Fold this sequence. Notes:
Strand content: 15-25%
Strand order of the largest sheet: 1-2-10-7-12-5-4-3
CATH superfamily: B-lactam Antibiotic, Isopenicillin N Synthase, Chain
Helix content: 25-40%
CATH class: Mainly Beta
Oligomer: single chain
Number of domains: 1
Radius of gyration: 21 Å
Number of helices: 9
Largest sheet: 8 strands, mixed
CATH topology: Jelly Rolls
Amino acid sequence: MGTTDTTKPNFDSILSERKAFDETKASVKGFVDEGIKKIPSFFHHQPDKNEIAYNNCHVLPIIDLADIDNKDPIIHQKIIDKLKEACETWGFFQVVNHGIPLNILEELKDGIKRFHEQDPEVKKDLYTTDPKGPFTYNSNIGGLSNSPALNWRDTFICFLAPDTPKPEDFPLVCRDILIEYSKQMMNLGFLLFELLSEALGLNPNHLKDMGCVEGLIAACHYYPPCPEPDLTVGLKKHSDTGFLAVVLQDHIGGLQVLYQDKWVDVKPIHGSLVVNVGDLLQLITNDKFKSVEHRVVANQVGPRISAACFFYNGHKLSSRLYGPIKELLSEDNPPKYRETTIGDYAVYSPAAKRLGCTSVLSHYKI
């Protein structure tokens, strides 16, 4: 009779614990409300190889759009050049004077907080693991069974474009602000993709005409205070799937970007938005723009509130092919990726990331 290897984790037991947690529909906030002092083991993350490698000497590039309508071509080009450098080196930047009123940003944060701090019985009626609806609320969306460890956060996701949201699709406590924010974000998206097109040396409408601004998905996160923040993370290391992400974060911070193999804190700037290149934008720019790994650390302070808007149409499967933009290619710069449909990409990418792939893009490399 063979002996049992007690050093290996009992995955059946771990999965059972996760399912039991999910079935409570109380989410991570439920643990905090109960006053727990020790977090469950299925939230424990293995230390990252860059765990203690920090770089506090660098600051995320800041792009000021205050003069974007200035008719002086020199002023306009300076903004484009700074944007180009940020996308090529960091893959991240903070944008200020972006045109979305401060009161709308504050109301969105308040609306997210109102939703997550509702009576637990009200939220339980909205809790679902079905990602097909226009509004999905649960804890650790998409990663309950496959992720090595769960994240210390609760989330609701809503689809804002291309289909116009119906008010009745969203909870009353955050309905109006979600609809208003989607309008504001689409306007900003059109502007950002025009500027990104120019930064690539293309016609301002190029990325828009490729469909990069067609889809918009909002993920609204609530990170409760964590009694053992060194054992877990708010959001594990990852790169984003779509074309572009625009993130509103509150004053607490916790977002970190992997830059030159070290973690750099993205310090909150009141009224700013954090923008980052997604995997698909790196693919179609043939590695000119970089999709960079990032994470959110857990914190004893909280709750931390953030809203990430993703320009990505993965929920509306299309046969349109996406590959390196031909105008960017040359004999010295041949295509590095094969073409893919959004349908193929949307199926492969989330599954690969849940299984721990460090780069989804490698699957499409030529």
